[in-house]
Amino acid sequence: RKEVEQDPGPFNVPEGATVAFNCTYSNSASQSFFWYRQDCRKEPKLLMSVYSSGNEDGRFTAQLNRASQYISLLIRDSKLSDSATYLCAVTFLSGYALNFGKGTSLLVTP
Amino acid sequence: ETGVTQTPRHLVMGMTNKKSLKCEQHLGHNAMYWYKQSAKKPLELMFVYSLEERVENNSVPSRFSPECPNSSHLFLHLHTLQPEDSALYLCASSLRSRETEAFFGQGTRLTVV
């Protein structure tokens, strides 16, 4: 069973749309949660941490649901420049590092 | 400008060659990581160093050999690799291991011929 799972997409949305991604994790003893963005042939870059109370950064909102073991990322008013792969990452109490999902591909079209 | 730099950016090597990947972080972090990213697969953790001690080794074949001489530098020594080892190798660092966000270098794109 994969520890961190994401819908690979692709999600094709028009500019200005709202899009949401979910990420589920299998280990209930999870500690920290993050969303990363990865552009084609580039390294992952931290987009935002995910806090228990939920958090927002401009057009991006992240939520954590510990009971159901998932995190979500909502992007409002999508821009062409939001096109990328979005990776969720989770740290487990039993491990030392981030565990990544395969990523969800987003394409925002004019 | 990135706080984590990797060299080389691209590497083509034969199966009998020996080469090394280098990573340097300028962020004052205490943990460093090697990840492998192959097409259609999630990032795979290879090694974790915390305060220069290897704390995790995820069943990586012995043809990959890490070295962490100090908290700012991390190497990955490669020898007798296989074509299926071709991938993007990413170095990352974080303030501490376990719970903090990691910052990645630009990666080394390795092709084994």
Provide a concise account of the structure shown:
By secondary structure, chain A is an all-beta fold. Chain A contains no helices and eleven strands. The radius of gyration of chain A is 13 Å and the shape is globular.
Helices, strands, pairings?
The complex is a heterodimer of chains A (110) and B (113).
Chain A: E1 4-6, E2 11-14, E3 19-25, E4 30-38, E5 44-50, E6 55-57, E7 60-65, E8 70-75, E9 84-92, E10 98-100, E11 104-109
Parallel strand pairs in A: 2-11
Antiparallel strand pairs in A: 1-3, 3-8, 4-5, 4-9, 6-7, 7-8, 9-10, 9-11
Chain B: E1 4-7, E2 10-13, E3 18-25, E4 31-37, E5 44-50, E6 53-57, E7 64-70, E8 73-79, E9 87-94, E10 103-104, E11 108-112
Parallel strand pairs in B: 2-11
Antiparallel strand pairs in B: 1-3, 3-8, 4-5, 4-9, 5-6, 7-8, 9-10, 9-11
Task: Explain the overall architecture.
The complex is a heterodimer of chains A (110) and B (113). Chain A is mainly β. By secondary structure, chain B is mainly beta. Chain B contains no helices and eleven strands.
Structural features:
A: 110 residues, mainly beta, 5-stranded antiparallel sheet, 57% strand, B: 113 residues, 7-stranded mixed sheet, 4-stranded antiparallel sheet, globular
- Helix/strand/pairing category of chain B: mainly beta
Q: Between the first and last Cα atoms of chain A, what is the distance in angstroms? A: 38 Å
List the secondary-structure elements of chain B in sequence, H or E. EEEEEEEEEEE
State mean pLDDT of chain B (0 to 100 scale): 93
**Largest sheet descriptor of chain B:** 7 strands, mixed
Low-confidence stretches of chain B: none
Order of helices and strands of chain A: EEEEEEEEEEE
Helical coverage of chain B, percent range: under 10%
Rg from Cα of chain A = 13 Å
Helices of chain A, by number, come to: 0
Beta-strand residue fraction of chain A: over 45%
Helix content estimate of chain A? under 10%
Query: Tally the helices of chain B: what do you get?
Result: 0
Low-pLDDT residue intervals, each spanning 5 or more residues of chain A: none
Number of strands of chain A: 11
What is the gyration radius of chain B calculated from CA atoms?
Answer: 13 Å
What is the average of the pLDDT values of chain A? Answer: 92
| Shape, per Cα inertia axes of chain B | globular
Q: Quaternary state, please?
A: heterodimer
